[in-house]
Amino acid sequence: MKKTIFITGSTDGIGKLAAQRLASEGHEVFVHGRNPNKVKATVAEIQASASSTEVRGYVADLSDLRAVAALGQQLAKELPRLDVLINNAGVFKSPNATNAEGLELRMVVNYLAPYLLTQALHPQLQQGEQPRIINLSSAAQAPVSMAALQGKAIPGVQEAYAQSKLAITEWSFYLAKQWKDISVIAVNPGSLLNTRMVREGYGTFWSPAEKGSDLLYELAVGAEYSGITGKYYDNDQGGFGKAHRDAYDSRKIAELIQTTEGLLAALV
Ligand SMILES: NC(=O)c1ccc[n+]([C@@H]2O[C@H](COP(=O)([O-])OP(=O)(O)OC[C@H]3O[C@@H](n4cnc5c(N)ncnc54)[C@H](OP(=O)(O)O)[C@@H]3O)[C@@H](O)[C@H]2O)c1
Predict the structure, then answer these.
(1) What is the CA(136)–ligand 1 centre distance, in A?
(2) Tens digits of per-residue pLDDT, 1-19?
């Protein structure tokens, strides 16, 4: 069955590969990126090779939370329904440690932006057919500092990345309990996949990027994942597994959600 799928950060890496595969099988795919030329080129590339002509591109820099809110409003107007949201866009190394508001960049792009965008798309997901949200986590997960989340302390890149990935995992488990009619899965797509993020960050890789994009494809449309929610898929282990222990700590999750809500209310 043809699905309507929005993938953030689908101008490169595993998001782009997943978008190409989903479109080639006739799904309606919405591509997103921060660079208008790259979005245009990706849409043209997918359209040229896919049987599906339903490929549209959206531009928003996820390090700017007002741009995320504007994207949410645009999508809410243009998409009557959404079956699958893949919060894939992510950043590891960056030229600047913080965004214009002084918030840690990885916290914004990897956690706060997907949080905000997903809230905006709730009505569209509720109209979806067996709707699914796939949130990109990582094997790198570290306890989330509320000071780091609020930009009051700026950790190093590796630490901030790992904190942002535990934050998105904790929130995924929380959301699965809140939105019972929508499946929410947090996923480590596999460590050191051959993408630009990894090549720039580590100068080496362990596995082809397709290891991650094929998993995103399966989680998005695979019948075997229908109705599975509140779980962590660990592609280093090849199945559902255990996230960091904080992701099961209701007190820590409550603190994270409360701080996140307060921060977003003040900023957007
Ligand atoms: N690769 C791995 O081994 C690995 C392992 C664990 C988790 N992950 C996670 O998997 C996801 C995809 O990673 P990848 O390796 O495919 O990375 P990638 O090749 O660097 O692609 C990242 C995508 O996100 C977009 N993006 C980055 N910053 C953005 C911003 N501020 N606003 C909007 N879009 C932005 C990029 O846009 P541009 O094209 O403009 O740069 C690109 O489309 C990330 O969340 C990453 O943390 C990856």
Answers:
(1) 9
(2) 899 999 999 999 999 999 9
Q: Mind giving me the DSSP string for 185-207?
A: EEEE--SSBSSHHHHHHHS--SB
Which residue has its alpha carbon closest to ligand 1 atom 9?
Answer: 136
Model pLDDT, residue 54: 78
Mutation pick for ligand 1 pocket among 20, 29, 30, 34 (CB with most ligand atoms within 8 Å):
34
Angle between the N-to-C axes of helices 113-120 and 157-178, in degrees from 0 to 180, rounded to the nearest 10: 20
Domain hosting residue 173, numbered range: 4-267
Task: Give the least confident one: 87-91, 200-204, 251-255.
Answer: 200-204
Q: How far apart are the CA of 16 and the centre of ligand 1, in A?
A: 10
Please say whether the dihedral angle defined by the alpha carbons of residues 216, 91, 253 and 156, taken in this order, is positive or negative.
positive
Residues in the ligand 1 pocket, defined by CB under 6 Å: 9-15, 33-35, 38, 61-63, 88-91, 109-110, 136, 138, 188-189, 191-193, 195-198
- pLDDT (0 to 100) of residue 52: 58
CA 208 to chain centre: 20
CATH number at residue 82: 3.40.50.720
Total of domains in the chain: 1
Answer yes or no: pTM beyond 0.90. Answer: yes
